[in-house]
Amino acid sequence: MVSVSNQEDAILSRLRGEGYKITPQRRAIVRAILSSDEYVTPELLLIKARQAFPSLGRVTVYRTLDILSQLGLLCTLHPEGHHPGYTLGRLDHHHHVVCSGCGRVSDFSEHGLEELEKRLSRETGFKIEGHILEFLGLCPQCQETNNEK
Amino acid sequence: MVSVSNQEDAILSRLRGEGYKITPQRRAIVRAILSSDEYVTPELLLIKARQAFPSLGRVTVYRTLDILSQLGLLCTLHPEGHHPGYTLGRLDHHHHVVCSGCGRVSDFSEHGLEELEKRLSRETGFKIEGHILEFLGLCPQCQETNNEK
DNA sequence: TACTAACTGAAACCATTTTTCATTTACTAT
DNA sequence: ATAGTAAATGAAAAATGGTTTCAGTTAGTA
Ligand SMILES: [Mn+2]
Ligand SMILES: [Mn+2]
Ligand SMILES: [Zn+2]
Ligand SMILES: [Zn+2]
Q1: C1'-nearest nucleotide to the CA of B20
Q2: In terms of C-beta density within 10 A (0-12 exposed, 13-18 middle, 19 or more buried), how is residue B50 classed?
Q3: Closest approach of B73 to chain A, Cα-based (Å)
Q4: From the CB of residue B7, how many other CB atoms can be counted at a distance below 10 Å?
Q5: Which domain holds residue A64?
Q6: What local confidence, expressed as pLDDT, does residue A89 receive?
Q7: Chain A residues contacting B, CB < 8 Å?
Q8: pLDDT score for A3
Q9: What CATH code is carried by the domain that includes residue B8?
Q10: Contacts A143 to B, Cβ<8 Å
Q11: Which 116-145 residues of chain B approach strand C with CB closer than 7 Å?
Q12: Structural domain tally of chain B?
């Protein structure tokens, strides 16, 4: 838990450094994202953050997500058929394994896409600037739950 | 152009085979997706298909996309910050390089994710069922346009 | 040439996100 | 501590993107 709190501080001081004010609303929102190992949608985030700050407005959630996104602090997930989800995590380049059952997210550092990227660049003529890589599956807990039925 | 037409026929006869009727609306929609090497959004698709069938309704576009998607004929793109886009293409498992300038899409067959998938499965305990892999960049044409300015 | 299940599109509806704006607040400089 | 100010907030309204409903139409068939 000490690491979660450190992460919270790091994010808040980054916000402060960029000239944003540290409001209790923003605290509650950041804390709510960090306190879950599942990704959150804006609506879910509103509900969670309101437990700490009940009068929180929906708009502020969207605005805070925008800011975090612009600062590159937010990980965006693309769960098939669902609305986009968000997590707050590491700052280095990484990717995600997402549980289709419960939304739990596990990160990993990428390996081996560099060769593929070079090949594609050569073969298609595209100047490649980025990529999305995401695995979808069932987390250990959800595998158990499914087997029990 | 003969290949585009073959593709169109293949898709339409697949629809017929599945018990769907071949209506002029569906023809226009399928043709509109195929006639572009850029991905289309539902709105764009409506506009394009209406050139061939002006009274086409927005709902029919969504319904046809649903059908094509269920049959596994539709490729879904996740362009950063934009709405999901669609193309019609190959039936085998493949991925996309998408131009962030104009939306042009180029496919490729994947190589080398199997090892990574095994590693992740082992390290995270997830039972991996699928993945998203997409490259983003500038197509040759858009690179030129950008350089000229 | 019927017949009928499938299909269509207008309209109403719904969920999500954005905009607007009057009020409040976090920070800065006294 | 206090006041001043730009930034932030939230209620409400509007916009956006997508879905449902339903009465009328049509593709495929027999
Ligand atoms: Mn992450
Ligand atoms: Mn494709
Ligand atoms: Zn799970
Ligand atoms: Zn391009």
Answers
A1: C6
A2: middle
A3: 16
A4: 18
A5: 4-148
A6: 83
A7: 78, 80, 97, 99-100, 106, 108, 111-112, 115-117, 120-121, 123-140, 143
A8: 53
A9: 1.10.10.10
A10: 127
A11: none
A12: 1
Quick: pLDDT tens for B29-81: 999 999 999 999 999 999 999 999 999 999 999 999 999 999 999 999 988 88
> In this predicted structure, what is the pLDDT of residue A145?
85
> At A128, which amino acid appears?
I
**Local confidence band at A4 (pLDDT 50, 70, 90 cut-offs):** low
Single out the residue of B2, B1, B64 nearest to residue B28, CA to CA. Answer: B64
Q: Provide the residue count of chain B.
A: 149
Cα B33 to middle of ligand 3, angstroms: 36
Q: Which residue has the tokens 């769907």?
A: B20
| Helix (H) / strand (E) containing B138 | strand B127-138
Q: Based on the number of CB atoms within 10 Å of its own CB, is B121 exposed (0-12), middle (13-18) or buried (19 or more)? A: middle
Q: Would the pLDDT of A1 be above 60?
A: no
The C-alpha of A44 sits at a distance from chain B's nearest C-alpha, in angstroms, of 20
Round and report the angstrom distance from CA (A47) to C1' (C10). Answer: 37
| CA dihedral sign of residues B135, B139, B140, B142 | negative
pTM attached to this predicted model: 0.90
